[in-house]
Structure formats: structure tokens, C-alpha cells
User: What shape does this take?
Amino acid sequence: MIRVLLVQDTYLLRAALAAFLGREPDLEVLSASWEHAAATSWARWPDVCVVDMDSPDAAGPRGLRELSARCCAGDGTSVLLALATAERPGPLRRAYEEGALGYLSKNASPDQLVEGIRRVAKGERYIDESLGYGFLEAAEIPLTRRELSVLSLAAEGSSIGEIARSLHLSNGTVRNYLASITRKTGARNRVDAIRISRGAGWV
Amino acid sequence: MIRVLLVQDTYLLRAALAAFLGREPDLEVLSASWEHAAATSWARWPDVCVVDMDSPDAAGPRGLRELSARCCAGDGTSVLLALATAERPGPLRRAYEEGALGYLSKNASPDQLVEGIRRVAKGERYIDESLGYGFLEAAEIPLTRRELSVLSLAAEGSSIGEIARSLHLSNGTVRNYLASITRKTGARNRVDAIRISRGAGWV
Assistant: This one.
């Protein structure tokens, strides 16, 4: 029996997907939102955590990093199977950085998900080939870690002065970072750079 | 027998939800992405169109307006059941403007969706009570139609000059609109106004 934890924020969708998976005789399925998945004291960690990487919470403090720290090396010994889309390389890269063993496109069929779960439960890597191009892009994120910090704050609506204070930089340095971000993303201006980076799931 | 068309952009999720609905003896379920739902020549329009309003495509040219024009008054006589979230009043309002008969929170259970489908198929209004607060907010959108046009272009990364040319306004008028938008949304600046409005689903 493979115990599966399905982490997705929309109850309607995760309940339907959990019901689908639960029809398989070898799968036992729990489901939770990101917030609850990472915060809950599971009596026993599931064997496989299937995580929808597109939720904004997946990148947050109760997101994949905490879930992974608890389930994969800490409280339990789960493996991660990431649900992602080829068009948004950011979430794909975050899953890779946390050592996910499986990667499935959200445009795959539920039957492929069943197959992927069985494979990673056996300790095998599983990569849906339709994600290939996304992986190439994910390897090529053009922004540095510091540029991503600046961009994240800008995307939250912080002014240049606020970003500077928050990261202990001068206003001029923040302006230089923003100019470099705009250039590297091929954007027309700062708002456009935020739009492009959000679309790719970088911030 | 109730024929249902489920419109949602993520194949994995809509296939699982369609499989769940398809287990009901009185439901026959088709599913499609927004793009295909509006473009397909359905042999016979379904009785109920269940539409996930959170997709960016729902507000686009192949979105709810076209689907509604074709299925509800044109080619067919379907009724609309909108899936939405109380936190994002914009999509809720768009569904209301297109005359949706049913409204269900995406945090409802799949069984509630079955109930909602049966109710609207009989021509009854169905409103999930957890959406109540969202409806209050949807009725109170603080921005005018013109301000929304300006904001949409700004959110796509257009500069003030580009917005002005595109809407046949002066740069000063565009600046005034952006100042008014920033004030009305309680934002700190233009980027923050875009963030807040996107969060609410207004643009």
C-alpha cells in the first residue's frame, strides 16, 4: 500500500483528484492545502507527497522548503512528486532544488499521475517528457539571487527606498539592480519585468 | 440525463473532476480548456456549463463572454455555473455580468458541485453561501471602466506614453488616472495598485 499526501490549495479540485487516486487498490490518499500540509503533525508521513507547485504558498514560508524539510529528511521519509507546467520554469526549479524525485505536467492525465506515484514510491526518478523544455528554461534563470530578492520586494509594491532599507542597500544600488533585471528579462520597464517574472514563476 | 461541460484549463484537474462527476448516474460530462470550449462546434450544447473563473483566459477574448454568447443565447441554451473564490471578487462579478445562474466556491466539496449542477439544470439559482462576502465586494468595485482600462495596460507593462497613445489620452490624464487608481485601491504606488487589483481579480 502506498500512502499519498496530495498538496493542493483548492479543495474542490484536490478532493476530486484524491477521489480519483483513491480508486486505485494500492493507493491510500490524504489531501491538504499547503498551509495545513506543512503545519500538521502527521501521525505517520506518507510515502509520497504529490505537490502542486503553482500555488503562491508553495514558494512561501509554509511551502515546499518546510514540507520537504519535515517529510523528506526530518519527521518522515517521503519522496516528492511535483506537479508543474512547462511554461512556468520557476516552480519547476524550486521543486528540483528541494530534491523532488518525480515531475509531472499538470496537463498530464490522472492515469499518468498514478503511474508516476508508483514509480517514485519505488525510489525511481519519474520525469514527464512534456516538461523537458521547462527544465531547460529552469536551468537558465537569468537573475541572480540578489536580483530575485529585489524583484520580489518590487513585485509586492515596495518603493525603491523601501527595498533599499529592507536589504541594507543604497537607493542607487537598488536602481542598478532594477535596471539590470529589466535588461535581462527583456522587459520594457520595471512593471513589465515584474509581469514577465511572475509569468515564469520566478517571483 | 444532464449534459455537463466542465471548463477548466488544467487537464489533470479537470479530468479528475470530470471523472468524479461522471460517476453520478444522471450526469454526462465533457470537459475542455477555455480556449477549446469557446472555439469548438459542439454537436449539441450541454445543459450546464461549469466554468472555472480563475483562469486568465476566462476574462480573455475566448473567455466567458464568447462562451456565454454561444451557449446561453446563441447556439445552445445552456446555463452557467461559475466556480470562484470569495477572495477574488473580479471573476465573480464577470460571471454575474454574463448572467450565471449558479455560483460555487472552489473550496466547496465535489458533492456540493453535483448538487449545484442539478439545481441550475432545473433552472434554479444556486449560490454557495460561503461566497456571500465576495458578492458584497464584487458589487463594490471601486474603479471606473476607464480606470480599469488604464490599469490593465499598466499591468501588462505599458508605459504612460504607450497607455496614452493606446487610449487616445494625454500623458497627464493617464497620470491622473493612475494616481486615482492608487488612491482608491489604498496602494502605496502604481506597482502596488497592480498587485492589489490582480489579487482581487479586477485585471
The mean pLDDT of chain A is 90. The two ends of chain A are 37 Å apart (CA to CA).
